[in-house]
Design brief:
The structure is a homotetramer.
Chain A: H1 3-11, H2 23-41, H3 45-50, H4 52-76, H5 86-94, H6 97-110, H7 112-117, H8 136-151, H9 153-178, H10 183-186, H11 189-200, H12 213-257
Helix pairs in contact in A: 1-4, 2-4, 4-6, 8-12, 9-11, 9-12
């Protein structure tokens, strides 16, 4: 087994039959998470100005690491099975979705001019983690989530439409009851919708709340009637996802036990 | 195929065997949603005064569109199968529930005197969307929701009654514990019920909350004991709805596969 | 059929084979609900002082009505099947739990001295409604709820104990992190438990919340980890109740269809 | 039956075949709960300074009780079945996990110098209750909870990862929209994450909330889209736990009924 062949197996986890993450994969995942964490805490002005040089060095280190990994992949991908020439395989890989993300991450990290101006861009590194979702179990779980949503789309349309009508109806009721008393918070339906959404999701910041008796009665009715409705789409998706995962597990268990179900 | 026959198929989606929305239907849905959106943002004073003429033109446009659609339907409904004369069919359709809603929407939109005074009336347009609920899957989903509620009415009575007793009991407890200290918020049971409802639905605005140690202990007990109770009716309806939809889907799948289940 | 026999059937719904509420039962239920509503709004000082005489008359009317119903029941209960004498049956009924509640309600309503001093006592009327729970479907639904709780008591012990440990652990963590900074809110573990309960039930009034970075990190961890735990007992009871009701309905349906399931 | 043998049965509930708590066990549980309660209320300065001597005496009493129990167990454990000598059994027990916890609790309670300085340490007594979890039903329920989490780890990874992305995405969006206007609350992504976590768990203290229209729109979208996602891991664990307990109960019932299911 050549060095390049071993590198290919290390870097491209999907190349391995067991579908597990290799040591290199795990280190890269850690590096991505660390670089995202640095990008996040780097937005805190006090921390950033105190640790300016440490952050710069860390960013430089991540950039070199990601660049090295990108080059190593470009070199090793020639081991991919297939009749094409090495460079054809490389060109094909370089134009793939996940390779382009990798390239964007390298560029974002290494161009120092972007460093100061747009820290949010650096959070794009998180998308690199999406590449992990190709692995067996994760990809199955995501597919289960996706198909759960597609399967129950009519349930979601109906409960979603009822929830929307309730959000709008609640906002209109409070606009009517409190619009004159609290024009800042309920002076128009779009303003009242902020109250309506924050109430029906049960967040309830308390920055806006009805003060008149009529407004309180209406708000209480909206809160009692509507909270269930807003929670229903979630419950539907959760149940469908859970069932789909369970069905998969049972199928897998049956597959392991033998031929006959 | 005559023009009127084609118009009938376009305008009356229920006339088509596949039960899907036609292009015209979709455009009307978009127009309704857009007109509702205009009515909503038009309640925002700052926006309304700046864009007075644009809103007026939009309202006029929607009015003409809805009027044109109403007239086109009135003309095309003569194609409806049946032995009656064209005008008998038209008269029957014009007196139907959904046609009356359409007429009300046209009138509300076109009478400019209503325009300034009662923006809430314009939200009635949303009810036009209810006509969509006649379509196959949606109508089935709504029926499933309705029958789920009817089927489980005793579950709902019992949990609803327990929730009501808890709301009332919590309000009475806090009225007793905090009525003297915070007369504005807990000085009577109806006032304390505002606290009780906002707490047990977990909204928790924070505009009223107990301040005495006794009040806090009682509120903590009410919160821990009662949140589940208030959430139970929702959970029951959600589960029943989900089961009914699932049963329908399985039946449908069986129907497609062949005669034998 | 004598008058007394008809009165017995009207007043004692459980005497009827179909187990439905009679017209008289329904009127009494309405009177109870109305008298509770009067007792509730009567705690609102402004309303009570304005409508003093109306409330007094209403209270007097309810008292007379409840007294009349009590006497009518006492008279009619002699029709109850059994070999005992009329007065033995009356004495037995008068000492029953629900008859004692009725008597207490009559006494509370009619003694005018209690009227001014203890409005909360009047809410005891609500307990009269408990007598309704003897009816078929309701009694079954309540039993299902009770047996659901008994069946899953170990599930509830374990999740309840974990929730308690989390409540206590969260309170201790915030007492440690914020006790010095906000002694009023987090200066002792019992004080911090108010925060802990209001946070983990997701009520979140906002009257107390951490202000130090360490306190916020700990609070965020407690919130994310613990909300599920506190919601679990509810979910367990709701699921068990729902299953028990479903099983009952299926059994009932099977019973109606015939002998074979 | 000797005194030591009876003491063994009383003190070591696991020695009994029915797996129930003995009277002594129950008393010890009460003493532990009481000592934890004293430790908790003892952190309240006002209460502690007023009841200094009562707390000291209570602490001393608990210490003596726990010491006596420890010694009694050490003495009685010699009855444990097995060929080893009495002291070998004692030494083995004394080095067991739960015996070490007992010893730590005795030491913490009796050393008076720890009394004043570190009240939090005294909450460690709660861990003594963990010893109860060895009993049949509890241990089964805990195992069911543990295996529910392990079984559904991929469901949890996927929903947890999506929830994390949403938390981070929401924080980034509000940092971008409100960072300039409210630098204290949204001036960096770590600060905005406090808002993000408190909103998506629906706690909603209201200490930080968006004030700009753009911030409110983004927050509303995050709230509506994300609440379900954050609730999903909980729902998954709750359902899995409930199913595992139900499967256990059915198995147990089948075992009792006889051989055939």
């Amino acid at each position: 087994m050549t060095l390049r062949s071993r590198a290919y197996n290390e870097l491209f986890a999907s190349a391995r039959t067991d579908g597990k993450l290799t040591l290199t994969n795990r280190l890269v995942v850690l590096a991505i998470l660390a670089s995202v964490a640095v990008a996040i805490v780097g937005t805190e002005r006090a921390f950033a100005s105190e640790n300016r040089s440490a952050i710069l060095w860390a960013e430089f280190g991540f950039g070199v690491l990601f660049l090295a990994e990108y080059c190593a992949r470009l070199w090793a991908v020639a081991e991919r099975p297939g009749p094409e020439s090495d460079w054809a395989k490389r060109s094909e890989w370089a134009r793939s979705f996940f390779a382009l993300i990798d390239l964007v991450v390298v560029v974002i990290t290494l161009i120092p001019f972007i460093l100061a101006g747009a820290p949010i861009l650096r959070l794009l590194r998180l998308f690199r983690l999406a590449a992990l979702l190709k692995f067996g179990k994760f990809s199955m779980a995501l597919k289960a989530l996706g198909s759960a949503i597609v399967d129950r789309r009519y349930d979601l349309y109906v409960t979603g439409a009822l929830a929307l009508v309730l959000l709008l109806g609640g906002a209109t009721a409070l606009y009517w009851a409190e619009g004159k008393v609290q024009p800042e918070a309920f002076g128009s339906i779009p303003r009242a919708m902020w109250w309506s959404i924050i109430t029906l999701t049960t967040v309830g910041y308390g920055d806006v709340s009805p003060v008149t008796p009529l407004g309180k009665v209406l708000a209480a009715l909206v809160a009692m009637g509507g909270i269930g409705l807003v929670a229903m789409p979630t419950g539907i998706i959760a149940a469908a996802f859970s069932d789909a995962m369970q069905a998969y597990r049972e199928e897998e268990a049956r597959g392991k036990d033998g031929a006959m179900p």
